Amino acid sequence: LAGPCVLDRGLAVEWASLVPPTDGLEIVAVRATAAWRVVTLAEVSRVDDAQMSGPLVQVEARDELLSQEIDGEIVLLDLRSGMYLGLNRLGTFIWKLLISNDGSISAGTIVEAVTGEFEVEPATARRDLDQLLLELSSNRLVRVG
Amino acid sequence: MALAQRGAAFGSSVASDLPLPLGRGGGKSLCEPLWVRRGRADGLLSGDRRLRRLGGPSGVVGMVSPRRRTVWIERAGPHPGAMWGAVMGISLPHLLSAAGSMVLRASCAAKDDRAVAFLGPRRAGKSSITAALLTEGWRVMADDALLVRASGGSVHAQPSFPAMRLWAPLAVSMASTLGLERAPIHPAADKEWVFLNEQQWSDRAEVQLACLCVLDDGRLAQLRGTDPMRAILAATYDPEPRSPERRRRWFRSASQLASSLPVLRMSVPADYRPDFRFGGGITRQLQAAKVL
Predict the structure, then answer these.
(1) Distance, in angstroms, between B263 CA and closest chain A CA?
(2) How many helices (H) and strands (E) are present in chain A, helices listed first?
(3) pLDDT, tens digit, for every residue of A54-92?
(4) Which of A2, B2, B113, B275 could form a disulfide with A17 if both were Cys (CB 3.0 to 4.6 A apart)?
(5) Which range in A9-23, A94-108, B144-158 is most confidently predicted, on average pLDDT?
(6) Under an 8 A CB cutoff, do A71 and B225 touch?
(7) Which residues of chain A lie closer than 8 angstroms to B247, CB-CB?
């Protein structure tokens, strides 16, 4: 079921690969009900050596989000759009970090926490975080900057 | 006006001005009856939706009113099969979903005291697989729209209506072998209706679901993590309008289902043929997954 397909009423649906992600961070939008503005990677988050703390990451419209944890992974539902996302274990860790810090935390702090929790190089953690923030911000779940 | 028909569909008794593929059991009702009326609604209530807006075929004009548990068909169009699809495949599932029931885009078959539901996008093979199980002693409970009820850690499927929409060669093969009636959906459609009788149709009030099967190309596996819930969310009948409250209920129901029964990924067997007598590969996969 991998890849985009079209269901009744022309609703564009991205069927997630049901194969568990093998490496890094994988976040898959199963259902896209609106064409949100796509934010380029450069716009979102570049945590480089010259910017150790990185930009501030804030959860948007927290009251409009539902989450359900299953087997250590979280499914998020945006009540505004009906779009839902599945986070793998790394994504779940980062999301919980965001929430436990009152919905606001620096990207650098996230990278530090990820490298402390998972056996991952800082550069890999940064790349994964970039990708997650890109997905979350383009779906208006977080604001970065 | 005298009612053309009384019968059962989606676990409810149905009274209709129009001929529909309804099951028996019109005298018993698990909840308030559903109505299918010819004509127009007398005024609008909140939640009433035009059939066209719900994705109904262009030749069928009507209105669905969840608060009145009624579907009005103003114009049925020249093809009765299209009207049956508009009522049974779109209007009644919407009516029930909007009223708070959980409806999955799934086909379902039952054997003894266990039922299995097949999920997947259009043309994934849900109906074909369900029809193929008939030769293994299963009975059909639903084709394409399935009403489910979760309670006390278990999930029950309720029978939808005794007809299936099958790819035409499969419909011809099944109808001629089993002596069943079939009817065209629309001249341009490549599927046909096949009406089931009591040998193929399960009219039990409800049967416990053993598992949900997502038809996919991958190897047989039980889904873990967020995959079961995402598969259920993808198969949940979309209520309109998409109010936050309905989305909240939709999410909770999917969560309840995902935590109550196994969700398998299952492939259509490589040697599958468009012949309804093909069923062995499916039951072998279900047995291998230890859900039967």
Answers:
(1) 11
(2) 4, 9
(3) 788 888 888 889 999 988 899 999 888 888 888 998 899
(4) A2
(5) B144-158
(6) yes
(7) 66, 77, 79, 82
